[in-house]
Each structure stands twice: as C-alpha cells, then as structure tokens.
Amino acid sequence: MATRRIGSVTLGGGLMVFGILFLVHTFWDGLSYGLILRFWPLLLISLGAETLLSLRQSETKWVYDKGAIVMMIFLGLFAMMMAAAQFTLEAWEALGYLNW
Fold this sequence. Notes:
Layout: E1 3-6, H1 8-27, H2 33-37, H3 41-55, E2 61-64, H4 66-95
Parallel strand pairs: 1-2
C-alpha cells in the first residue's frame, strides 16, 4: 500500500502563487501586501481540496505532511510581517520621520 502525504501539493502551489505575487509586488507598486494577504484563505481551501481528493483513492494510505503544514503557517506569518513592515515604513515616511 502506497503512502501519500497530504499538504505537499498545497505547499508547492502556495509557494508558487505567493512567490509570484511577491515578485510582481517588487516590480509593480500597484499590488500591495494587503491585497496579497487577502489570498491566504486559498491555502486552507487547497489543503481541504487535497484532503478530499486523496480520500477518493481508497487503496492509498494518506498521512498529513506536518512539515509542509507548519511551513505554510510560517510563510503566512512572514507575509503578514512584511505587510506590517511596509505599512509602518509608508506611515513613517508620510509623517516625515523617514527621509529616504
């Protein structure tokens, strides 16, 4: 019986999607971190979809990939910290505390 780890596909897809969004933000200021963070529920939706799809394969034993799930949580927190840093720097610049 083959073992399949649930969460690996979601982690890979999440890394690709959020990596592309952060890259676009780097070159185009029209895409803010706040908008990128609004897509975080997609990680939960895709993890749920991956779980449901794996249940259809009855001959396969499935286990949760705990490392991948922890990594998704870590990346979500990192994205939130980046958004907070951008917000803080923009506010300080607008208030005149920073002169770049």
